[in-house]
Amino acid sequence: MTKERIKDLLDRGAPGEDVTVEGWLRTVRHSKNVSFLDVSDGSCMSGIQAVAAPELANYEAEVRKLTTGCCVRVAGRLAESPGKGQRYEIQAGSVEVVGHADDDYPLQKKRHSFEFLRTLGHLRMRTNTFGAVMRVRNAAAHAIHGFFQERGFIHLHSPIITLSDCEGAGEMFRVSTLDPDRTPRTESGAVDYSRDFFGKEARLTVSGQLEAEIAALALSNVYTFGPTFRSENSNTSRHLAEFWMVEPEMAFCDIQGDMDLAEAFLKHLAKGVLESCPDDMAFFNERIDKTVLETLTDIVDQPFERMTYTEAVAILERSGRSFEYPVSWGVNLQSEHERYLVEEHVGRPVMVIDYPKEIKAFYMYLNDDERTVAAMDVLVPKIGEIIGGSQREHRLDQLRQRINECGLPEDEYWWYLELRRYGSAPHAGFGLGFERLVQFMTGLGNIRDVIPFPRVPGFAEF
Ligand code: 4AD
Ligand code: MG
C-alpha cells in the first residue's frame, strides 16, 4: 500500500485498490453515522472524498472532531463514487490525524475576497484559486525551459546584486551593510560607499539583460529566468516590486528575428499550459474570466499583428477616442492606448516596433532615421505590455553617444562598451514579465494574486 498523489489516483487508480493519501481537509461533513472528508493535497484541482464509518477505532475520539484545515492520512479502498462530480472515493480503513486545526482556521467554506486572502499568505495556497495559480505557474515555468532547451539556448544565471543600472531609470533598491545611523561620509559629505560591503554602491538588479549580452557574445543564444526588482512606487494591478523575468538574448539576430522568437515563445507557452493544466484552466475560465480559454487558443492559432510605433500612433489618432492621456508622435503609449490597439483595433496580440529613442532605454539600436530605435513591445488583451525587447546597439560610437545623451555615467558602463570593441556582433533579446504572463493566462485581475508572495509598496509580509 503505497502513498499516492491524489492526481495519480484519479488519473490511474482502479476500483478495489488499496490506497493511502495525505492532505488537508477542505470540507468535512459529519452526518449521523458517517463522516465525509474532502482531502486535498494540491496535486490537482479536485480533492478526493474519504468516507469514514463508526467502525474506525478512533471514530468518536478523533474523526468526528475533524474540521476544515486539519491534516490527515487516510488509508482505505478506492471505490466508484455514487456522488456526482467525482469519479472515486476512498472507503476509509484508517484515518490518522497528522495535524489538528484550531477552530478559528480562517479558510472556511465560504468564498473569501482576494484582498482578504492576501493577508493569509501562509494559508491561501490551500484554496482552489491559488492552488490552480501555483500549478499554472509551474507549468508555464516548465514550458519556458522546454522552449529554450529545445532550441539550444543556454540557461544563464545572471546576478541579483549589481553595480549597473540596466534600464537607466534609477528605480533600484540599494544593497548595503553600512549602519544607517552612522553612515561613513567622504570629505564632501557624500555617503562613502568605498567602505560598504562591495566597495561601491550596489543594488538589486532590474534586469539580467546586460549580463545576458555578455553571455550571448560568447555562447550565441542564452536566456535568464530570475527575480528582478523595481522600486517604482506604482500601486497598480500590473506592477510588483519583485517579479520574475525571462530574458533571451541572441547573437547574430536583429529586430525581426527578435519578434519571430517572441511570437513563437508565447504560442509555445499558451499551448503548453492548455495541454498540461486543462482542469485548472477550465476553472479559471468558469470562475475568473470567461474568455481565457478562447484567448489562449487564439494565441496559439492566430498570427500576431505587427506595426510600427508611428503606425500605432496614427491608428490611435484616427480612432476618434478621447483618451485620458492624449496621443501624439513622441509620447509613451499608456495602457489605455495599448488596450485600444489590442482589444478594439486588432482583436489579438500586437507587436509594436521602432519607438522614438527619447522614450526608450540607452542600449537600443538606433535606426537609420536617427529618430527611432529598434525596440519591440508585445501587447496582449487585458494586460497591455507583456514583453519588452529590442535589437541592441552593437556599434561603439552610437552606443557611447546614446549613453551620454541619456545622461548616464560612461565609466560605469565600461565593460558594456568594451564588448563593442572586442568582437561585437548584432544581437537582440527581450524580457517577458512572468507574472504578467500568469495574469494573462489565468485572467486574474491583480498581479498580487499570481505570485506566491507579492512585494509591493508597503507590503512584504510572509
Ligand atoms: O520592458 P522592461 O522594463 O524591459 C527590460 O527590463 C529589458 N531589459 C528586457 C530585455 O530586453 N531583456 O521589462 C520587461 C517586462 C515588461 O514587458 C513587463 O512584462 C515586465 O517585464 N515588468 C514588470 N512586471 C511586473 N512588475 C513590474 N514592476 C514590471 N516591470 C516590468
Ligand atoms: Mg517596457
Structural class from helices and strands?
Answer: alpha+beta
Which small molecules are bound? Answer: 4-amino-1,4-dioxobutan-2-aminium adenosine-5'-monophosphate, magnesium ion
Rg: 27 Å
Largest sheet: 8 strands, mixed
Count of separate DSSP helical elements: 12
User: What spatial form do the alpha-carbon principal axes imply?
Assistant: elongated
What are the segments in which pLDDT stays under 50 over at least 5 consecutive residues? none
Query: Residue share in helices?
Result: 25-40%
Distance between the termini: 37 Å
Number of strands: 16
How much of the residues is beta strand, in percent? 15-25%
Along the chain, the helix and strand elements come as HEEEEEHHEEEEHEEHHHEHHEEEHHEH
| Order of the strands making up the biggest sheet | 6-10-11-16-15-14-13-12
Calculate the mean pLDDT score and round it.
Answer: 95
Short précis:
This protein has 462 residues and is of the alpha+beta class. The protein has helices at 6-12, 114-118, 128-150, 209-219, 255-276, 278-287, 292-301, 309-318, 335-346, 396-405, 414-418, 434-442, and strands spanning 18-31, 34-40, 48-52, 71-80, 88-99, 154-155, 161-162, 174-175, 202-204, 221-229, 242-251, 305-308, 350-356, 372-380, 384-391, 427-433.
